[in-house]
Every structure is written in C-alpha cells, then in structure tokens.
Design brief:
The chain is of the alpha/beta class and 500 residues long. It comes from Streptomyces rugosispiralis.
Length: 500
C-alpha cells in the first residue's frame, strides 16, 4: 500500500473517451490513446490493500488485485505484469470487455466509488506488451500426450495455452476461417481491436499450440474420429444457439439475429467484404434486446450510418443505485451507459427521441411488412409494434406503439450450445436440464477423455468466467493425462457468481 490515504485524498477518475463525432466515423477503440498512463498510478493508489479483499471473490479468476495495484502505484510494471498474468491468460481482453464484477466487490465501493480495477488491469497488460514483457513460454519438455480443443473462444484459448505450457501437444479446431470465436467475429472493433487478439495468438503459436481453422467438428470431421486421434478432447464451442422471437411477422425480410449481423461488420474490417451484406446504412433500425450484444449492435449501427435507431429492453429501467435486495459485494443491476449509448444519446435526431435510444419495459408483439415481391417473397419489414411490459411481464393495456423499422436486429441472448452439428451425437454427449453439456465435478463428460469448458457447459456468461473455466478444465485434463497437476483451477463447474 504505497499511499495509506490514497482512497481518502484521490477521487475516482476514468480515462477520457474520444469525441463522439470522431469515433463514430471510424472503428478504432473508444478510449483516447494515451489517456490511462497519466492517471493510473494515482488510481491504483486508491486501493486500500484490504485485510479481506472481496475483489478476489468478485472475480472468478482470483486475480491478485491489491498486489498489482500496489506495484503499479510504485511504477513497478514488470512485477505487476507477472502478478497479473499469474491468474489471467488474457488480461488485455478482460480489461476491455469484462463488466468488472471485481469493482462491484471492492471494499471501497461500500460508501465510495470503487477503485478503477479494470483500467489498471488493461494498463498493465498494454504496458507489458509495449515493453516486451510478454514473451512465449514454451514448455521445457513435451509429455508425449495430445489434446484437441474444439472452439477458439476465450475458454478454448485459455485451456489450450495452459495445456501447451504443461507440455502437451495441443491443436485447436475452429469452424470459422479465423481463430478467435466471438472475440473475432462477435466483439466489434471499437470495443477491442483485433490486433490484441492476433498478437496473443502469435504468442500461443510460438509456444507450440497448433490451430486448425475451417474445420467444423461433427460435420467436416467426425467427432468420434477426433477423439480416437487424441488422448483427450476439450469441448469449448460456446453457447451460440440464439433465442428467437416467435411473433407474427418474424418471417419478413430485414429481421436478423445479432450474430448474423455483427460478424459481417467485423468481416468488412478483416477485408472479406467491401460492404457488409447486412448494413444499417440509411435505415431506421430497431434492436430488440437490452444487453451487451444489443449495445454492440447499437455502436455498429451508428458507425454504419443508420437514419435512426432504437433499442428495446423488456426489463424496467434499473435504478441508479444498488437496490436493497442487491447489497455489496454482489454485482448490482443498476443503470449503466455504455460508450454506444453515450453515442446514441449525443446523436439523437430530435428532442422527442429517447435520451439514449433505449426504451425500457417494452415487449414486441408483431412486425408489419411490405407486400411480397420477387426479391422478398414474404415481404420486407417496415414497422415493429410494441407494448409496455408490466412488472409481471404481461403487456400493459393501451400502451401499444409502432416504430418504423427497415432493419430489426434480435439480441435476445443464447440458449446454450448448438445441437444440430453432429458433435453431441458422435461423442455421445448429454445435455443437462438447462440445455448445456452435462459434466461432472472435474469438467468431464460421460465420454471418456472428453471435457467441457466455458459457456457450452455453464451457459451464456462473462469472458472472465470463460477464461477461468478454460484454466480449470486444463487442470482437469492434465490430471487425467498425467495423474496429477500443478495447473491452477480457479473455479468449479457449478460455482456461481456472487448473488443476493
């Protein structure tokens, strides 16, 4: 604890964001370049070095937050990077993408604004790369054992890196043409530029991890054959079976799932398309869903030049402060404004527009469309009809509204892993009552040598949980192959976030 009074004398301060009118014209990350370093030492000094640091409990990775806060406050960036990487394979990802439940659990947050843990984390990670402190860590010797990892999202990548460093020969299979899963094609560039992903993949390749892209296990390759070729298999395919909106008019052209829309926008930046096949340019857009994926759609729509955009959330507007039923240290459901919502508010076309393009307590009841033609045999969407949702979820009488909509994006979350590709049947995997892959306390399925990590077994969750599960599953696989393990296992398959 470099300054024992830092939390008393230094207010919480966030780095500046680039001006809205500038950033909506490009796809670069939102924070102003170089904005963290002038303030981050003093922000790290606000950490109280608590006797019981509840931030450890808020983060499933068990990040050593007070330790690296203290090191940053003292300008010891090398040791801070070592302590950060001791528990987190990819802090440059989590520092950009995680909603920071660690900050909600910060002891200072009981009666003051929390330490900016997330910003300290990303500052350490970026400084480590810039200073050359992040280098490949290949194993000293090989075990002679082989592991296949199916899926290259954060859980699969974390499992692969841990197992490679333990000496096993690891190959990651990805059905897309590039590695990264939703980190590559689901997360917009303005939230995380893909150079961060690419340089981490280069490190993994230098350590010995192999990547096989364009291979859909269960379709292009029989999953049972894959299991026969490797000593163990880790299934980390995520929870990509999206939720539907079964209301009249759903068949109309111009209504798309968010995960149909977002990857196309990212592929333009990868050079695959000169223009996205699905674009918001010049259109009146409605986004159905109030979560992070909906916000990602919102920021993308604005950058594509939509004529207008409205985001619908079925839930009532959260309060600005913790509710009585959500006491510290749980991560509360409070009103938050992402960078995309900030952009929408500033770019609102008229005084009548919602201040940040969000409509709460809104339930979609039907879509209205144009007449069918040769190009659109079912017609095209032209309007969305909604009603106000009461606290019990039922529509409120007399609250129907009609929104103009040339493009509708459904961001309703995910049900679990996809089940129609042959993977489950070929390996004999079972589903649990939640629709996710069944596994035991050691992440193992009923098929010998087959393990499950990440959202495929947990259900839709946060990136920190995916990485934690990948690390824990790697420890279980290492124990299965070698009889024992020294790899860390920060979480178990049934561990849950702190809730009230």
């Amino acid at each position: 604890m470099a300054d024992p009074k830092g939390f008393l004398t230094t207010p919480r301060r966030l780095p500046p964001r680039r001006p809205v009118d500038e950033r909506v014209r490009d796809w670069d990350e939102v924070p102003a370049p170089g904005g963290l370093l002038p303030i981050i030492n003093a922000q790290a000094d606000r950490c109280m070095d608590c006797g019981i640091p509840f931030c450890h409990e808020g983060c499933p990775l068990g990040n050593l937050i007070p330790e690296w806060n203290d090191l940053v406050s003292r300008d010891d960036w090398l040791r801070a990077s070592e302590r950060l990487h001791a528990t987190n394979n990819f802090p440059e990802f989590t520092g950009r993408l995680c909603p920071a439940p660690c900050e909600s659990a910060c002891v200072l947050a009981i009666n003051q604004p929390a330490v900016t843990i997330k910003n300290v984390e990303v500052a350490i990670a970026d400084r480590a790369w810039e200073s050359g402190h992040v280098t490949p860590k290949p194993p000293d010797r090989l075990s002679g054992r082989t592991v296949a990892v199916v899926g290259s999202g954060p859980a699969g990548l974390a499992a692969a890196q841990q197992l490679t460093r333990a000496g096993h020969t690891v190959a990651v299979y990805e059905r897309d043409d590039r590695v990264g899963g939703l980190l590559r094609y689901g997360i917009p560039e303005f939230k995380m530029e893909k150079r961060h992903l690419d340089r981490r993949l280069a490190q993994m390749r230098a350590e010995g991890t192999k990547f096989r892209t364009g291979v859909d296990i269960g379709t292009d390759m029989d999953a049972a054959e894959l299991r026969a070729r490797y000593d163990a298999v880790v299934i980390a395919v995520g929870a990509r079976a999206w939720r539907e909106l079964p209301v009249p008019g759903r068949e109309l052209a111009g209504i798309h799932q968010a995960m149909e829309y977002l990857p196309m926008a990212n592929r333009v930046l990868e050079g695959d398309y000169p223009r996205p096949p699905i674009t918001a340019e010049g259109k009146h857009v409605v986004i159905v869903g109030g979560g992070d994926t909906g916000a990602d759609c919102l920021g993308t729509v604005l950058r594509q030049g939509a004529a207008s955009v409205t985001q619908l959330d079925i839930h009532p507007r959260p309060g600005d402060e913790r509710a009585e039923g959500e006491p510290w240290p749980v991560h509360p459901k409070i009103y938050r404004m992402s960078a995309a919502h900030e952009e929408a508010r500033e770019l609102a076309a008229s005084p009548e527009a919602d201040v940040d393009a969000r409509v709460f307590s809104a339930t979609t009841v039907r879509f209205e469309g144009t007449a069918p033609d040769a190009e659109r045999p079912h017609g095209g969407v032209r309007a969305l009809c909604l009603v106000g949702a009461r606290a019990d979820g039922e529509p409120g009488p007399g609250t129907e509204r009609v929104l103009r909509a040339d493009l509708v994006l459904l961001a309703l979350g995910f049900r679990g892993p996809e089940q129609d590709g042959g993977l489950l049947e070929q390996l004999g995997l079972e589903l649990d009552e939640r629709g996710t892959l069944a596994r035991d306390a050691s992440f193992a399925t009923g098929a010998d040598g087959v393990f499950v990590a990440g959202d495929a077994g947990r259900g839709q969750s946060l990136i920190v949980w995916a990485i934690a599960e990948g690390r824990s599953a790697a420890a279980a696989v290492d124990r299965y192959l070698a009889g024992s393990t020294t790899l860390p296992a920060p979480v178990g398959p049934t561990d849950l976030p702190m809730t009230a």
